[in-house]
Amino acid sequence: MLKIKTTLLLIGIAITLSSCGFKLKGSFEIPYQAIYLQAEVGSRVGKIIKKKIQRTSYVNVVQTMSDAEVAIIILSEVSIRTVAVLSNAGSVDEYELVYTIGYRIDSTNNSINNAERQLVLRRKITHSDLDIAAKSNEENSLINDMASEAATRILVRLSRKKNIGL
Fold this sequence. Notes:
This protein is α/β, with parallel strands linked by helices. It has helices spanning 2-19, 44-55, 132-164, and strands at residues 34-38, 60-62, 70-86, 92-107, 117-126.
């Protein structure tokens, strides 16, 4: 009896949340059928955006801008590691990773304001001379996470552009 009540309660909550327009943070629905993506060959953000677009079955990534309704152009992608905290002895205790993405969203019919945009993401990472390989892997993982977050932010912005004409 308790199991049935719990199941019904969960179904009721799910119906209530879906009927009120609730969406998870970072979720997006792309309102275009064909998208052109221009990015450097080794671009982390470019690869992630392409992968996320291809997961939606109704959106095609096309090879030329003339075939697309909208274009995502990755202008720059830079990751920098700077010293954030020094110990009393003068050795590095913490680094700050800064991941900067320059991009532009263009439409073929010029219905979108195609100003250049920039995303700057920051993460802190502790440093240890004893675990150099592990810290290197952690840094690489953080950079991949920042690239994924940047890709999601760009796609969320794209999903809102058709409705508000940004």
